[in-house]
Amino acid sequence: MNFTELSSSVRPEIIRATQAMGYTEMTEIQQKAIPLMLAGHDMIAKAPTGTGKTVAFGIPILQKAAGFPAGAPKAVVLSPTRELAQQIAQDLTNLAQFLPEIRVVCVYGGAGLEKQQKQLKAGCQIVVATPGRLMDHYRHHALDLSQVTTIVLDEADEMLNMGFYKDVRGIIDLLKSRESLSMFSAT
């Protein structure tokens, strides 16, 4: 299935970005996950590394976030590591390259809290974060989670194995507007 076949349910700017990134044919995980997430379903997905899981959840997140002004985020993507969070944020930014109103903010431990707080206060539609740092920003009132409708746990199994269960559970419980929860992991 080609990405252009999503044109009836996905903004042309997002389709154009997939083409600019060199993607033409969807992988199996993308074919299965994108329609489910666009429909707002909760899901658990497992696919090998390198099969395009970030694009699989990124397209629906961007589709839902587009058209909203940068303010309180509409989506949160949790990652177990700083490196993966940075990679996800870059991939989402690339997917949003033709949607100039979209702001993606990446927050993680080991970096300056104040700089991240300024980015969050400037507004965004999507936050990519490690669980502990997201909770730090929430506790410091730098992050409004009241409008988050979508949460994705990337490498969910790793996050739970690394001892993030309490933070992840706490974050999910804070999302009063949550419409969908998706968990992705590598095989």
From TrEMBL:
GO cellular component, one term: cytosol
SUPFAM superfamilies: P-loop containing nucleoside triphosphate hydrolases
GO molecular function, one term: nucleic acid binding
Record domain DEAD-box RNA helicase Q: where: 3-31
Coiled-coil stretches noted in the UniProt entry, renumbered to this chain: none
Keywords attached to this entry: ATP-binding, Helicase, Hydrolase, Nucleotide-binding
InterPro entries, per the entry: DEAD/DEAH_box_helicase_dom, DEAD/DEAH_RhlB, DEAD_box_RNA_helicase, Helicase_ATP-bd, P-loop_NTPase, RNA-helicase_DEAD-box_CS, RNA_helicase_DEAD_Q_motif
Cross-referenced PROSITE patterns: DEAD_ATP_HELICASE, HELICASE_ATP_BIND_1, Q_MOTIF
Domain Helicase ATP-binding: 34-187
Protein name: DEAD/DEAH box helicase domain-containing protein
